[in-house]
Amino acid sequence: MARNAHPEVTRRRILDAAQKLFSEKGFEHTSMQDIVNELGNLSKGAIYHHFPGKEAILEELTHRDWEASHGLLDELRQRTDLTGLEKIREVIRRSVTSETHLDIQRDAAQFLEDSTTLAHNLQSWQTTVADGFHTLIMDGVKDGSITTEYPREAAILLSLLLNYWVACAPTAADTEPRTRCVATMLAAIGLPVFNEELIDLTVRGFQAFNAPSFYPEPHDTADDRNR
């Protein structure tokens, strides 16, 4: 068999196909055979050569999503037409209105039931993700749009509460009161990031995130049982 001269291209095609199917059918209802069928010209063995299973594919999609978010932070840091507060609002606005981002996070959220995965995410939210918010908060302190005396703590609270407490609310009905609670808490320590417009966008985004699945029921094929 000829060696694949562009393995990174093949990996990207697999990821793109899987992302499309996860969005349409849901992670649980997508089999490796579905991904093979979507690609059309790759065998299941070729996919397993790049990824040991669909969990690894989802992990790579999550990593790719994070890289896109990191790129957004870099883009906003360079902008001089926005205050630090406005930059934070823009980060949140894009996150809660991006169907691609919300689809990936919805699929990944089910693995938070695993204590090791939850611990890893909690650590990431209060370090790596909070670092990005902290940089923008400090921009806001410098330009006067943010008055908090607790910039680091505010960044951690924003990251943890938004990514876990609000995003993983038990039901969609819990999303609005939790969002308003976070808005009130942050405003009380000098970070009034949530205006009514952003509250509304956040509530609608995370209510969709927490809504019951509308994915079609899969046919119980042999491949589904052995995926």
From TrEMBL:
Keywords: DNA-binding. InterPro entries: Homeodomain-like_sf, HTH-type_TetR-like_transc_reg, HTH_TetR. PROSITE patterns: HTH_TETR_2. It holds the Pfam family TetR_N. It comes from the Bacteria. Gene3D superfamilies: Tetracycline Repressor, domain 2. Residues 8-69 form the HTH tetR-type domain. Residues 32-51 bind DNA. The keyword DNA-binding applies. GO terms for molecular function: DNA-binding transcription factor activity; transcription cis-regulatory region binding. The keyword Acyltransferase does not apply. This is TetR-type transcriptional regulator.
